[in-house]
Amino acid sequence: MNMINADEKKHVVCVVGTRPEAIKMAPVIAELKLRPWCRVTVVGTGQHREMMHQALGAFGLGVDVDLDVMTPNQRLSTLSSRILSGFDAYLQKENPDLVLAQGDTTTVMAVALCCFHAKVPLGHVEAGLRTSQIDNPFPEEFNRRIASLAAALHFAPTGRAKEKLLAENYDPATVFVTGNTVIDALLTILKQYPESSAKSDIVLVTMHRRENHGLPMERVCESIARLHDRYPHLRFRLPVHPNPAVKSVVEAKLKGLERIVLSDPLSYGELACVMRDSLLILTDSGGIQEEAPILRKPVLVLRSETERPEALDAGVGKLVGTDSALIEAEVDRLLTDEAYYASMASGASPYGDGQAAQRIADRCAAYLGLGGTVMPDFA
Ligand SMILES: CC(=O)N[C@@H]1[C@@H](OP(=O)(O)OP(=O)(O)OC[C@H]2O[C@@H](n3ccc(=O)[nH]c3=O)[C@H](O)[C@@H]2O)O[C@H](CO)[C@@H](O)[C@@H]1O
User: What is the ipTM of this complex?
Assistant: First the structure.
């Protein structure tokens, strides 16, 4: 058997900063660790320190290098500058063969800039998501466009994301449709939990996006309260984001209602089980929009625009924004029209098949000149 010496291995650095990045990067880190050619280092920026560690821990993974950039009430530019200087120093010291970063956080934007300056190749996981406005969602739309500009490899989750990149003139030879790694993560984590056969009466609600802070969030909470009164068999689960702008509104509007459970954010395993056991889901989370369809859960999206229209096109998701009348009408219809519910719970999974990490690792190997077979794109 051919053994590869440690000093002959390629050094791949995976960067994570927030909970969703940790969840979506975990399958890639785990897959790269299995590849004999690869030495993986996980660098954490600590943008959402506790939730990031908790999410990696759910997969038996941890951070090797902690840049520890977060200070209380930090402005986005200050956070960016701390990541820039911390990660640049790391790149200077290590000069890795490849850096992988995921999604659209301030972490990914700053890491992309560092890679560009240091001429270190970047692979962007979940590339090509776009809305029509540079500041919506803020600051993520800007962040993902910067990541695309710097990336040598674009791992697009869907065919639509690939088309968006090609329309911006990125080289087709650098764009690969892999599926979203969140589906790999979800299927992996759910294996740890036996399925329950109980009939579900749970409505899962999550909200945290900046554009919903204030009045929009108040309107959604008022709708939840009315639905709670209208449907006495329903129970509502709301894991509440720790941001005070979210917590204060949700608690003021919904605390104390009999069948509404407000809690701290759930571990990824717990959240995955609540999703699997739910009847339907209302959310403004990007990740949950991607996860719900494969679990056969109708998902109502509490945003005015989504960069993930694939679920809408497949008829398994619906954009309801934060308009009370629309939210309540959709929930009413799902609860009273069986055929409509069944059409939204069809199980179509436009976001992936659970093999995204394998495709990404194959493409990294090919890019680094290691040859090997590459799994065909996700279709
Ligand atoms: C603008 C935008 O759409 N950006 C997205 C984004 O974030 P998001 O909106 O998906 O973020 P969240 O909702 O915080 O996380 C979601 C994950 O967390 C799990 N979860 C949730 C509640 C809980 O109590 N416990 C949990 O475990 C849940 O199942 C899911 O997997 O950032 C990513 C990184 O770059 C991007 O990929 C992505 O575009």
Answer: 0.97
